[in-house]
Amino acid sequence: MKTNNLNVCRLGTVDDPPEIIFYKDVRMNSNRITNLPAPTLPHEAVNKLYVDGTPRKIFHGYVQNLRSFGPVKNDKFGFIVTASSYAGDSFHPAHAFKGLYRPFAEGEWKTNGETLNFWIQMQCPDLVRLFRIALRGIDSSTNRIYKWRLEGSTNGYTFTTLYEAPNSTFIGSEVRYFPIETSDRFNIFRLFCLEAEPTNPGLSFVQLYVYSE
Q1: What is the pLDDT of residue 139?
Q2: Which pLDDT score is estimated for 72?
Q3: Are the beta carbons of 68 and 75 closer than 8 angstroms?
Q4: Cα distance between the two ends of the chain
Q5: pLDDT under 70 in the chain at which residues?
Q6: What is the DSSP string of 36-60?
Q7: Do residues 124 and 79 lie in contact, with contact meaning Cβ atoms separated by under 8 Å?
Q8: Hey, what domains does the chain have and what are their CATH numbers?
Q9: How far apart are CA 129 and CA 208, in angstroms?
Q10: What is the pLDDT of residue 97?
Q11: What is the pLDDT, as a whole number, of residue 170?
Q12: Could you give the dihedral angle defined by the CA atoms of residues 40, 46, 48 and 50, in that order, rounded to the nearest 10 degrees?
């Protein structure tokens, strides 16, 4: 079909299946295009059901700023942080989830002398699916964690490994981001540290990044 000797559309091609080709914009005049299938190619149009049901990555952190004062834990947002140990109230595990960083005392979580098989755990108010985690070690650039894994759970007893750090992956004084590939949702996340440098390894920053599900 042509208008003013210009191609407008072509009904049928030799392709299998045959196609209708439009050479100009299509104005629907407030009418709908219906019965679109779920897309399989990057350039295909999508339906509302597909858009509404497709998870999106949320790039601002999921965990609230958990400011704590001495032994008092700030769990008013429904996030509960625990650890295998901590070196006094100034190094409570909630300090690793504060968002805004304050150096040294009340700005870090440190173990009470543990360097093998220690952990820090975050219990979230909802089941969520991660796509990455951010970690930063303590401010001194020493006491680094170098053998660790991230685990997920829904009951606090059975844990699934979500990420296992390759050899020589140190958690030091710079923020590092680690991608998580899982289709499962959890409400408990545990960083289990198998080995670290002496004497009081720990973290100054932890953040979880989730999908909008």
Answers
A1: 85
A2: 55
A3: no
A4: 46
A5: 67-77, 99-106
A6: PPPP-STTS---HHHHHHS--B--S
A7: yes
A8: 1-54 (no CATH), 80-210 (2.60.120.260)
A9: 10
A10: 86
A11: 93
A12: 20
- CA distances 41 to 14, 23, 33, 38, 76, Å, are 21, 20, 18, 9, 45
Q: Are β-strands 20-22 and 6-7 bridged in parallel, bridged antiparallel, or unpaired?
A: unpaired
Structure confidence at residue 16 (pLDDT)? 83
Residue 141, helix vs strand vs coil: coil
The helices-and-strands tally (H runs, E runs) of the chain is 1, 13
Give the pLDDT score at 133: 97
Q: In the prediction, which pLDDT does 154 show?
A: 98
- Give me the count of residues in the chain: 213
Query: How far is CA 175 from each of CA 81, 88, 111, 152, 206, rounded to the nearest angstrom?
Result: 20, 24, 19, 21, 9
> Which residues lie below 8 Å from residue 135, measured CB to CB, with a gap of 6+?
171, 175, 176, 178, 191, 203, 205, 206
Q: 24-56: string of b/e by CB count within 10 Å (b at 16+)?
A: eeeeeeeeeeeeeeeeeeeeeeeeeeeeeeeee
Token pair of 49, please?
Answer: 């059901």
